[in-house]
Structures are given as structure tokens and as C-alpha cells.
Specification:
Blueprint lengths: L10 E5 L4 H12 L3 E5 L5 H5 L10 E3 L7 H15 L4 E4 L15 H29 L2 E6 L12 H21 L4 E8 L5 H6 L11 H12 L10 E4 L4
Parallel strand pairs: 1-2, 1-4, 2-3, 4-5, 5-6, 6-7
Length: 241
């Protein structure tokens, strides 16, 4: 059952919008009336994915933006504030998974890639939007950790470490700004039902996995006024796994 949320005229930035989870989150906020800001590394992927957001006045699709680079993040936030004057919600779904080798066989390239993609982006985007939220005395940040953030697996040291960092980033931001009207929390997905996961695990019971659209509803709740008393929480969204 979908809950009715109202984000009319709130400015919501969704990173990772070209992914399965990010796309579901962006569309859920769109349906709830939000004005969306969606960045992407690709120069031209977003307009084809989100034709409903092509209204250049109400929404803002921003290509050629690498969220692991502070200069790009600064430009993104400054351009958003110039266009809309505020950022009410930041949802970080940008991220990825790379694993499969024991720690002693995990290369530094994989280590750096995971930490940059998952943890560095969460820190940089959160750091960049906080001043505007402090100025208005309100704001919501929802990060995306993972079940692996809570306990490392044998062959996912880099991924697990990067998502653990996301959890600690979430808790630290929450502790720093909860008295300033800013709520910072994270979702903790298990296995998400995506085409990529189905291809990688064809013998799994897909019915036990969690749907991106269901996770999006949890994100909307955490971004809503109903969650104003929740700070620094790591919300499990495991489905039946």
C-alpha cells in the first residue's frame, strides 16, 4: 500500500537517479509534487530516462557531474540554489557494488573505487548542502548504506568498508545538526530486486527481495515531517531476506 506524501514545491536532490533505486526514488518524489534536481555523470542520459522532468523551469537535470569531485558538487549546489533558492531534501542513492575476492586479493583500485563511489560522494554532497539548510533552519538528508555496513562479508571488504563509512557519515551528520532542524538518516537495503541482481543470481527467490518502489516509500517517509523526530537512524529495508 502506498502512503500519500506531499512534497509540493519542495526542492529535492536525488543523486544516482539513473540507477534502479534512484530512479524509483526520483519518480516517487515527482508523484508527490517535488521540484527535482537529478545529477548524473553522463552528459545526456537523464532526459531520455525522465522525459516527465524535461520542464527546465520546474525541474533540473544536470549532466556531466561527477559527485566524487568537490568542484562538481559545489557547482551543482550553487546552480541549484541560484535556480530554486533552496534545497529541502538530499537523497543519496549514488553508489555501486564491487566484490568477489578475499581481502588479500582485493586491489587498491577496487578499494579506492568503492570508497570514492559510495562514501566520498555521500560526504561531499552532504557537506555541500548543509550551509543552505542551516540558513533556513530545516532540511532532510537520506543516505543509502547497505546490510554489509553492519557486518563485513568474506569477499566484500572494500564494499563493506565503504558502506560502513556511509553509516558513520550519517550518524556524525545527524549528531552535528539535529539541534539545527536538520534530520540525517540512512536506509539499509538488503538485496534489491533489479534486473542486474536477477541476472547475477538467477536461482534466487526473487519474491523475497525488496522492490525499489517500496524502498522509495521509506525514503519519502524519512524526508517528510512525520520523521522529524528520527535522527541518525539506519533503517533496515531487507524485504524477506
Amino acid at each position: 500500500m502506498l502512503v500519500k506524501f506531499d512534497f509540493t514545491d519542495q526542492v529535492v536532490m536525488v543523486t544516482g537517479g539513473s540507477g534502479n533505486l534512484g530512479g524509483a526514488v526520483a519518480r516517487a518524489f515527482y508523484a508527490a509534487g517535488a521540484r527535482l534536481v537529478v545529477p548524473d555523470r553522463s552528459a545526456d542520459r537523464l532526459p531520455a530516462m525522465f522525459p516527465e522532468l524535461a520542464d527546465a523551469g520546474r525541474h533540473y537535470l544536470v549532466g556531466s557531474t561527477d559527485l566524487s569531485q568537490p568542484e562538481d558538487v559545489t557547482r551543482l549546489v550553487e546552480a541549484t540554489l541560484e535556480r530554486f533558492g533552496q534545497i529541502d531534501v538530499l537523497v543519496n542513492t549514488v553508489g555501486g557494488y564491487r566484490a568477489g575476492t578475499p581481502p588479500h586479493e582485493t586491489g587498491l583500485e577496487t578499494w579506492d573505487f568503492m570508497l570514492n563511489l559510495n562514501a566520498r560522494t555521500a560526504f561531499l554532497t552532504g557537506r555541500a548542502v548543509i550551509p543552505a539548510m542551516l540558513e533556513r533552519g530545516r532540511g532532510k538528508i537520506v543516505n543509502t548504506a547497505a546490510r554489509s555496513a553492519l557486518a563485513g562479508g568474506a569477499n566484500e571488504v572494500a564494499y563493506s568498508a565503504s558502506k560502513s563509512m556511509v553509516a558513520r557519515i550519517t550518524e556524525s551528520f545527524a549528531a552535528a545538526y539535529k539541534a539545527k532542524g536538520i534530520n540525517v538518516n540512512a536506509i539499509v537495503p538488503g538485496t534489491i530486486d533489479t534486473p542486474q541482481n536477477r541476472e547475477a543470481m538467477p536461482k534466487a527467490d526473487f519474491g523475497r527481495w525488496v522492490q525499489p518502489e517500496s524502498i522509495a516509500q521509506v525514503v519519502l517517509f524519512l524526508a517528510s515531517d512525520a520523521a522529524s523526530i528520527i535522527n541518525g537512524a539506519l533503517i533496515p529495508v531487507y524485504g524477506l531476506t
